[in-house]
Automatic annotation (TrEMBL):
PROSITE patterns: POLYPRENYL_SYNTHASE_1. One of its GO terms (molecular function) is dimethylallyltranstransferase activity. It comes from Neolewinella antarctica. The keyword Cytoplasm does not apply. Belongs to the FPP/GGPP synthase family. PANTHER family: GERANYLGERANYL PYROPHOSPHATE SYNTHASE (PTHR12001), SHORT CHAIN ISOPRENYL DIPHOSPHATE SYNTHASE (PTHR12001:SF85). The lineage of its organism: Bacteria, Pseudomonadati, Bacteroidota, Saprospiria, Saprospirales. It holds the Pfam family polyprenyl_synt. This is Geranylgeranyl diphosphate synthase type II.
Length: 331
C-alpha cells in the first residue's frame, strides 16, 4: 500500500463525496427530502468528515469500513445546524446559493433540519463496530449538546454589551471547536482506538478549532479579500464582538474605548470609513500580533495531544498537514 501523502486529504474527501452522493435519491415527500439533498450538495470544505476518516486511518481502518458512517453522521449533523442557524439569522445565502428557507420556506427548513438530525443518528448507528457504539453515542450527544449551547450563547451575545473574552472563547469552543474534536474522537472510537487516544484526538481537534476560529476572525478584519474569498471587515460591518474587539477594549485608552464602542453601534450605508478607523485602532493596540500569539498557543497545545497518541505516524502527519492548511500555513 502506498504511503499517505499530501494528496491523501483530497483522496479522502473524494471517497467521502462518492459515498455521500450514493445517498441522494428522489424520495417522497419531495418537499421534505429535496431540501436535504440540496444543502448537502451545495459545497463546503467537508473538513469534519475528512477528520473522522483521518482518525480512522491513524488507527488502522484502511478501507474506511468502520469510520465512513461516522463521517456521514458528522457532516449531516453539521449541515443540520447550518440549516437551522440560517433560519435563526435570517441568512439569505449559504455557500453562494439561496438558503433552504429562502428557496422553500421556514417551515420546510425546520422540518427538513429535524429529519437531518435523525439521519445523523442513523448513520452513527450503522457503524459496524457495535462494541464501540455506546462510547460513540455518548461522545456524539455531548458534542451535539455543546454545539446547541454555543449557538445560544452566540444569540445571547448579540444583545449584550458586557461579553467577556472568556465567554467569547467558550462560545467559539462550543459552536465550532467541539465538533472538530468530536469528529476525530468518534472516528477513532469507531476504528477501535482506546478511550485515552480518542480523548487526546478530541483535545487536538478542540484546540485546533479554537486556533482556526481565531485565525478566521483575524482574516475577516485584516485579510485580503482576494486571498480569503470573503468581504474584509464583515465582522466590523455587522458589529460582531469577536476576540479582536473584546481584547482591544482591554488594551486601548478610555477615549479610544468610547470611540470603538460607539463605532460598534453604527451601521453606515458606506462602511469604508468605519472599517478603516476600527482597524487603525486595533493595529495601534497590537491586536493582530496578540491574536496570532493566542492562535499559535492553542495550536502548540494541540500538537502535544497529537504526539501523545499511538497509531500510524504517517497518517498523523497527514492530519498535521490538514491542520496547517486550515490555518493558512504551509507545513
Amino acid at each position: 500500500m502506498l504511503a499517505p501523502s499530501t494528496n491523501s486529504i483530497q483522496e479522502l474527501r473524494e471517497q467521502f463525496l462518492a459515498q455521500l452522493s450514493s445517498h441522494f435519491r428522489e424520495r417522497e415527500p419531495l418537499g421534505l427530502y429535496d431540501p436535504i439533498n440540496y444543502i448537502l450538495q451545495i459545497g463546503g470544505k467537508r473538513i469534519r468528515p475528512v477528520l473522522a476518516l483521518l482518525s480512522g486511518k491513524i488507527f488502522g481502518d484502511d478501507d474506511l469500513s468502520q469510520t465512513m458512517s461516522v463521517a456521514l453522521a458528522v457532516e449531516v449533523f453539521h449541515n443540520f445546524t447550518l440549516l437551522h442557524d440560517d433560519i435563526m439569522d435570517d441568512s439569505p445565502i449559504r455557500r453562494g446559493q439561496p438558503t433552504v428557507h429562502e428557496r422553500w420556506d421556514v417551515n420546510t427548513g425546520i422540518l427538513s433540519g429535524d429529519l437531518m438530525l435523525i439521519q445523523a443518528y442513523q448513520h452513527l448507528a450503522s457503524c459496524p463496530n457495535v462494541a464501540a457504539f455506546p462510547a460513540m453515542l455518548a461522545a456524539f450527544n455531548r458534542v451535539a449538546t455543546g454545539v446547541c449551547e454555543g449557538q445560544q450563547y452566540d444569540v445571547d451575545f448579540e444583545s449584550r454589551d458586557d461579553v467577556t473574552i472568556e465567554e467569547y472563547l467558550q462560545m467559539i469552543e462550543l459552536k465550532t471547536a467541539v465538533l472538530l474534536g468530536g469528529a476525530l474522537e468518534i472516528g477513532a472510537l469507531a476504528a477501535g482506538a482506546s478511550q485515552q487516544d480518542a480523548d487526546h484526538l478530541y483535545a487536538f481537534g478542540r484546540l485546533t478549532g479554537l486556533a482556526f476560529q481565531l485565525q478566521d476572525d483575524l482574516l475577516d478584519t485584516f485579510g485580503e479579500s482576494a486571498a480569503t474569498g470573503k468581504l474584509t471587515g464583515n465582522d466590523i460591518i455587522r458589529n460582531k464582538k469577536t476576540f479582536l474587539f473584546l481584547h482591544a477594549l482591554d488594551l486601548i485608552d478610555q477615549d479610544e474605548r468610547i470611540e470603538l464602542t460607539r463605532l460598534f453601534t453604527t451601521s453606515p450605508i458606506n462602511p469604508a470609513n468605519k472599517i478603516a478607523r476600527v482597524t487603525a485602532i486595533m493595529e495601534k493596540a497590537g491586536i493582530p500580533a496578540a491574536v496570532a500569539e493566542l492562535r499559535d498557543k492553542y495550536q502548540a497545545e494541540a500538537y502535544v495531544h497529537l504526539n501523545a497518541i499511538g497509531g500510524s505516524g504517517q497518517w498523523k502527519k497527514v492530519l498535521g498537514l490538514l491542520t496547517e492548511s486550515l490555518l493558512g500555513r504551509e507545513s
